[in-house]
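INTERNAL AUDIT FORM
Audit reference: QA-55
Scope: verify that the stored structure record matches its stored sequence.
Auditor: D.O.
Record contents follow.
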Amino acid sequence: MSTASPALPIHPVILSGGVGSRLWPLSREAYPKQFLDVAAGGRTLVQQTLERLVDLPGLAEPLVVCNQAHRFLVAEQLRDSSLGTARILLEPVGRNTAPAVAVAALQALQTSDDAILAVFPADHLVAEPAHLRAAVTQAIEAARAGGLVTFGVVPYRAETGYGYIEAGEPVDGGPARAVRQFVEKPDAETARAYLDSGRFYWNSGMFVMRASAYLQALRTHAPAILEACEAAVAGAEQDMDFVRLDEAAFERCPAESIDYAVMEPTDAAVTLALEAGWSDLGSWATLMEAADRDAAGNALMGDVLTQDSHNNYVRAESRLVATVGLEDHVVVETADSVLVAPRGQVHAVKGIVEQLRADGRPEALEHREVHRPWGSYEGLVRAERFQVKRIIVSPGSRLSLQMHHHRAEHWVVVQGTARVTRGDEVFLLGEDQSTYIPLGTVHRLENPGMIPLELVEVQSGSYLGEDDIVRIEDRYGR
């Protein structure tokens, strides 16, 4: 294997395509766990993922691969991170991790003849980021020599919820070891044998590799993926801060994981042992393990009171939650849903989400507070022919110029200043002032001020669905 120049740029690749259904009701399809502060540390998971890499030498522009429906969430959270900017690649459909890394590799090669990719899921927790950075530095050296490096987390229990990597002999006398095999999630007895052997590590889903080496491996082992991704990138369009992959080409791409498509068949796979307090936060049970606990073993977040309760995870998002005599349970409260489950059965939460989707219920898709590129709205009251919303418009933002066929709207400003377009009129409203938008009238709401605009909207009409919006002009391209 040839050694590449030490000047190769390091591109963080953040995979942000998941929906986090196992952390329902906190995580929803429209606002999944990577955009939430699930660990109550003051930063969302995607922000933590980016920021733990800041001190790496030779760091180039990050590449974030996400579902196009989440593009404004990603952009907003990047602006609020220490890195500030990234190239955001929009997947028109989900095609798993092998294609996601492929389009990132192709994008990275547009800015340099070669590059090293440091690939991380956006929804993992790392308690000791300095240890991860040290491991990444070691992995970069192995990647420069042509290795496709994955991190094997040193296990501390016989875990049946993770896949495993069996490590072989050291490579060139360094810390990296050849990968003997990847194995699926084991049963309890097999997991215990893996733990006792000392040769098996948890499969973290994190990688470091040269972009060219990864694409060559795809060309050898999964050429259909590479062909579709090359076409998707070649036909991509720039849309504001986003790169929109060609939809037709990307839809043709096989949906495969990077493990299945590349890492299992290649002879270039190597692994590095990682001890950095890693967790994939794949369930409420793993989230509880990462949380601080009180003297009774409870992990409590929000407005929670407990009495004679032990070893529980209790999270309150919008109101008081109290437990009495509760043992080994998970209780999660949001504004519209409450989950109560024994800790040993939280893996079944995904089935609840599937049932909600089958029933067409909104609780699977979004929270009561719905985020938009201009701010957010929250449903307060809904009846057959009217509903009340609380609307927040960020400073300098504006909604689309629009009209409705089936509803009229009343707006009352609670805080800030609103610039209102109503037909041919344009006027300002201050606090405690209001206006009426008749059915069928073209209108727009803007915040020209320096503080968030807050207002109450009362809708009335025969149909109140969000699809009763005819957009005439929209800065967000919706």
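Auditor finding: record pair retrieved intact. The mean pLDDT is 92.
Action required: none
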